[in-house]
Amino acid sequence: MLAKRKMKSKELADNIGITPVNLSVLKTGKAKGVRFETLEAICKTLECQPGDILEYTEE
User: Fold this and answer.
1) Collapsing DSSP states into helix, strand and coil, what is residue 43?
2) Please, are residues 46 and 53 in contact by the beta-carbon 8 Å criterion?
3) pLDDT band at residue 43 using 50, 70 and 90 as cut-offs
């Protein structure tokens, strides 16, 4: 979605109020969870739905 919106990760992180490092943890799937307010901010900024950026995989 970042590429579709022609946005850099740092710009998204700044817009949603998290550090670029924390955004990287989310992007790489290493986060144990994500707050709904963070997910909402990402979706609002990228003009997308959660299903556009989340993927379920069994461990």
Assistant:
1) helix
2) yes
3) very high
Sign of CA dihedral 13, 47, 29, 39: positive
d(CA 4, CA 46): 9
| Cα 57 versus chain centre, distance | 17
Query: What's the pLDDT tens digit per position in 29-38?
Result: 899 999 999 9
**Structural domain count, the chain:** 1
- Does residue 59 form part of some domain? no
Mean pLDDT, to the nearest integer, of 8-29?
Answer: 96
The pLDDT, as a whole number, for residue 56 is 85
- Residue 20 · residue 10 · CB < 8 Å: yes
3 domain residue, yes or no = no
Is 4 part of any domain?
A: no
Residue 32, in any domain of the structure: yes
